[in-house]
Amino acid sequence: MVNRNWRLPDGVEELLPPQAWALEQVRRRVLDVFNAWGFDYVEPPVIEYLDALLVGTGVMGHETDLDLQTLKVVDQRSGRMLGVRADMTAQAVRIDAHSLAGSGDGVRRLCYAGPVVHANPAGALDSRVPIKAGAEIFGSGSLAADAEVLGLLAEILDTAGVSDPVIVLGHMGVYLGLVEPFGLEPALEQELFAAVQCKSETDIAQLLKGRGDSSLLQRLPTLMGEGSVLALAEELLRDAPKSVRGAVAALEQLAGLLAARCPELTIRFDLAELAGYGYHNGPVFSAYQSSQGQALARGGRYDGIGSAFGKGRGATGFDVSLMQLLNGAEGIPAIWAPWTDAAQPAVAQALADKVKALREAGNRVVASVSPDDAPPAGCDRSLQYVDGSWQLRNLADG
Q: Closest by alpha carbon to 54, among 43, 68, 41?
C-alpha cells in the first residue's frame, strides 16, 4: 500500500529553491518601499476569534463571501470559534481602532506581509495559501489618501520589475447608488453583486425583472475603457441619483491626481469594478500586467468599518500578491570556497578571512565541508589559491 501521508492538500504548495529565496527578496523589497513611504509594520496573528476576522465585512449582505473563505476551528481553551485569516484588512482595522487606540486619532499608516489561507479559492488553479503584502491609511477620507496608496502601489510594481502595469479604477458609489432604490433583500442583492462583477447584463436583467427600470445597472458592465468612458458615464447617468454622479466626478478627480503623480502609468476605468469582500464603499482599483489575466493587487476605500471596534473612520489601502510579482525564480549566484588542508593553517585562515569579507560585502558563499565535497548548483565562481592569495575565478574556466 502506497503511503500518501506526504502529499499536500489540494491547492497547498511548498516553495523550494530557488523560488523561495526569490519570493523572500521580493517581500524585502516591498517592505523597504513601505518603510520609505512612512508605513509602520505590523504582524497580525494567523488565527483570531472568528467574529473579529469577519467584522465589517457584512456590508450589503456579503459577509458570506469572506465567511466561506475562512477556515474555522473550535478553540479548545475558550470554546469559541477561531478563524484562520483569509484577508488581513480587517486585522489592520482592528489594530488601528483597538490595539493602537491610545496613540491618537491622527492619520495612521500600517503595512503587513504574510500568508493568508483560503478555504475555497476563487479559481481551480489558485493557491489556497497566497502570500500577501498590504498597506492601509487610516484617519483620512480624502481623495489625496487614495492617490497616496495608488502611488505607493505603482512604486511597488516598479520595484518588483512589473513592466507596463495597468491600474483599473472604479467607484463603489456608482453601484451602491444605482442599487439602493430597488430595496433588495440581502440574498438577492448578493446575487446581483456577483452578476455585476461577472459583467453579465443578462443576469442583471433577469434578477431585477419586474422590479423597475434596470437599464442603468445593465449598462454598468459596458462602462469600461480609457478616459473617454467617464464622459459617456456622465451622459448615461445624468438622471441617476446625485450620489452616483458624485462618485463619477470623484473618480475623475482621483484619476487626475494619480496621473499627476505617475504620468507614465496606464490608467483605465471600469464602473463595474466591485472589489473585495463587500466592505469597500468608495473608490476601488485593481492592478494588472498584460501577460497575466489575474489582478496583481486590489484595493480601495472602506470608510467606517472600524466602528465595530470602537473607532469607525476613513480608511483606504490595498494588498498585492507577492507570488505574482515574481519575475522568474533564478537562484542567487554563489561563490564556492574549496576544502583546505589543516596542515596549512595560514592558508586556511586566509581563506576564512576571505570568505568572511565576501559575506560581509553581501555575497553568497558556500564553504566545502569535506575533501570530496563538490560545488553545488548555483555556484558560478570559486575561490582559488593563486600566487599566495585567494582569488575569485569563474567555475566555467576550471
A: 68
67 pLDDT band, cuts 50/70/90, is confident
Residue with cell 523560488: 19
Model confidence pLDDT, tens digit, residues 291-345: 777 899 999 999 998 998 888 999 999 999 999 998 655 678 899 999 998 889 9
Query: CB neighbours of 395 closer than 8 A, spacing ≥ 6?
Result: 336, 375, 379, 380, 381, 382
Question: How much is the pLDDT for 1?
Answer: 54
Distances (CA, A) of 238 to 216, 222, 225, 281: 11, 16, 19, 21
What is the spatial distance between Cα 368 and Cα 291, in angstroms, rounded to a whole number? 42
- This prediction has a pTM of 0.91
Supply angle C-alpha 113, 161, 316, rounded to 5: 45
Are 290 and 309 spatial neighbours (Cβ–Cβ below 8 Å)? Answer: no
From residue 389, alpha-carbon distances to 339, 340, 343, 358, 368 in Å are 15, 13, 17, 14, 18
What is the C-alpha to C-alpha distance for residues 111 and 317, in angstroms, rounded to an integer?
Answer: 9
Cα(178)–Cα(276) distance, rounded to whole angstroms?
19
